[in-house]
TrEMBL record:
Organism: Herrania umbratica
Domain Protein kinase: 49-338
Name this polypeptide is given: Serine/threonine-protein kinase isoform X1
Cellular component annotations (GO), alphabetically ordered: membrane
Lineage: Eukaryota, Viridiplantae, Streptophyta, Embryophyta, Tracheophyta
Transmembrane regions: none
């Protein structure tokens, strides 16, 4: 799929159907169903951005549930990014329209946006089942008991959504922030990758690690955490961590009194080396799950978090590995990379280096070095 700005299409033609949006003229709905909303429409939809309509808050601002005049339920993200790091009004709308043209079953649909003075809003389809962070890893009251089939479908869906961004969109998009809270689920538990393309638009002027990733460093590929080197393989690493979370129901880092701080990537590597991979599978899954497939999924997770970026598979390969269209039996798996000294990272400063994989590296690879996927 070619990714190009449809700015001119959306704002120039059919003046009789154009609507004035505070200086922006847009067709109410273009071919892509993209809407430039007025502030008053969004205010009405969210009961004046009331606290009771607020459904979450992230690095870019607060998210509100809204009901549009036509009965559509939406999620409205009120961006709270400093204006200097924001694009100009028209450029912003143009970029957002371009992103809204990305259509895939496993991407959240960006329905529209709104510009009101210094305020900017994004409008998405509302996802009934919230995010993986809530239903898989959240508190008891939010959790959904996910069986193996559901986990398989979610893992594959996320992998396909990412493969689309990486390999079908031109120029390709590196997500940069793959993590459980950015995987939303619709009413049928179909996973939808959210926030794709946003960091590029909103964080251009910010150093590669901003304070907002403090809670999510465990998803960061070591080379990105250290030097800011961003490639598609950075996302593959984060996907690998996410995949291990989906299989195990455990978060990236766990604390327990016996072992102290333990990283999921480390646990998975230990389980692999000691031939006890199945112990990693979330007990909630029960006994009746395809063991061979579970082992394969963990191995794919480990391949995705290999320390050397070029040894990680491209996302389309990861998909085919998960579906067993590429046989990974006999593929060499080496120690994963791991940013395991989170406290030592001075956020936003490229001069301070976290230690990489020191715990994992003390464990020897059970097999000889690897074949390359790149
Ligand atoms: N389209 C949506 N439908 C339903 N809930 C949503 C939607 N978008 C966001 N949310 C909810 O709002 C929360 C905050 O989202 P947001 O993307 O702002 O922050 P985040 O994903 O937690 O962190 P980050 O800013 O790093 O992406 C999400 O965790 C989710 O619970
Ligand atoms: Mg998000």
């Amino acid at each position: 799929m070619k990714l190009f700005s449809c700015f001119s299409n959306c704002f120039s033609s059919a003046p009789d159907t154009a609507i004035d949006r505070g200086g922006l003229e847009a067709e109410e709905e273009n071919d892509q169903n993209f809407t430039v909303f007025s502030y008053s429409e969004l205010k009405a939809a969210t009961h004046g951005f009331s606290a009771s309509n607020k459904i979450g808050e992230g690095a870019f601002g607060s998210v509100y549930k809204g009901l549009l005049g036509n009965g559509t339920v939406v999620a409205v993200k009120m961006l709270s990014v400093e204006l200097e790091s924001m694009r100009g009004e028209r450029e912003f709308v143009s970029e957002i329209i371009t992103l809204s043209n990305l259509k895939h079953e496993n991407l959240v649909t960006l329905k529209g946006c709104c510009v009101d003075g210094a305020n900017r809003f994004l409008v998405y389809n509302y996802m009934e089942n919230n995010s993986l962070a809530q239903i898989l890893l959240g508190g008891e009251q939010n959790r959904i008991k996910l069986g193996w089939e559901a986990r398989r479908a979610i893992s594959l869906g996320v992998a396909r959504g990412l493969a689309y961004l990486h390999e079908e969109v031109e120029p390709h998009i590196v997500h940069r922030d793959i993590k459980a809270s950015n995987i939303l689920l619709d009413q049928n538990l179909i996973p939808k990758v959210s926030d794709f393309g946003l960091s590029r638009i909103l964080r251009d002027n910010v150093t590669h690690i901003s304070t907002h990733v403090a809670g999510t460093l465990g998803y960061l590929a070591p080379e990105y955490a250290i030097s800011g080197r961003l490639t598609r393989k950075t996302d593959v690493y984060s996907f690998g961590v996410l995949l291990l979370e989906i299989i195990s129901g455990q978060t990236v880092v766990n604390y327990d009194s016996e072992h102290g701080e333990r990283y999921l990537v480390q646990k998975a590597w230990e389980a692999f080396r000691t031939n006890s991979i199945l112990q990693l599978v979330d007990p909630i899954v029960g006994m009746n799950y395809p063991e061979e497939e579970a082992v394969r999924f963990v191995k794919v997770g480990l391949l995705c978090v290999q320390e050397t970026a070029k040894l990680r598979p491209e996302m389309s390969r990861a998909v085919r590995m998960l579906t067993n269209d590429i046989d990974i039996e006999g593929v060499q798996i080496s120690q994963p990379g791991l940013v395991d000294d989170l406290m030592n990272i001075k956020l936003g400063q490229k001069t301070t280096f976290p230690s990489i994989s020191s715990k994992a590296s003390s464990m020897e690879s059970s097999r000889s070095p690897l074949s390359s996927y790149s």
